[in-house]
Amino acid sequence: MNMSVENAGQILWVLGIVAWYVIRFPFERRARRTRVVVNRRSLTDRIGLGAALAGMAVVPGIYVATGFPKAGDHAASAWGVALGAFLFFAGVWLFRRTHKELGKNWSISLEIREKHKLISGGPYSLIRHPMYTSFFMLALGQALLLANWIVGLAGLAGFATLFFLRVDKEERMMTDTFGEEYRQYMDRTKRIIPYIY
Q1: Which runs of consecutive H residues, i.e. helices, occur in the chain?
Q2: What sections of the sequence does the record tag as coiled-coil (predicted)?
Q3: Can you tell me the mean pLDDT for 78-83?
Q4: Which of 42, 66, 71, 128 is deepest in the core (most CB within 10 A)?
Q5: Structural domains for the chain
């Protein structure tokens, strides 16, 4: 049986999403055991997380499972799937690195945990929010792996909603917690793209 380029892109997307979940699951379990001392969860935080989940998991998952919505379908290209796979799996790799660096400091929401430390090593030495960078790479990869304009834009819209609703609040929370140490860290790093932004 010959596998089409479109099917290859869908299979790679599914494998990447499974890898993403396998990486996240143990950190979610461990995070529940570390006491939260500052909780800045809000409605906008939930909206951002919901938009990211919808755009980067639910909408593409429905598309891969059912082919809906067909209206946005376009021809898949081998180079697009290859580039999409590279971006997607590089994003998965960065996602894993950020979790390993954060360890017990990791949280799905805007929270400071007991004995929280400012992490500035690994990917955090160049950018303050490498997890958002990984989401951006996943969204770009999704747009190339799945041959549907609507599904591709859903991932980018989900990422953008999460990022723009949360990043300023997250940086305020970190400044409130770490003060001058975080301000100096901000001076020597970029937000999500090394040396650029």
Answers
A1: 5-31, 43-53, 59-66, 78-102, 130-145, 149-178, 180-188
A2: none
A3: 97
A4: 128
A5: 5-188 (1.20.120.1630)
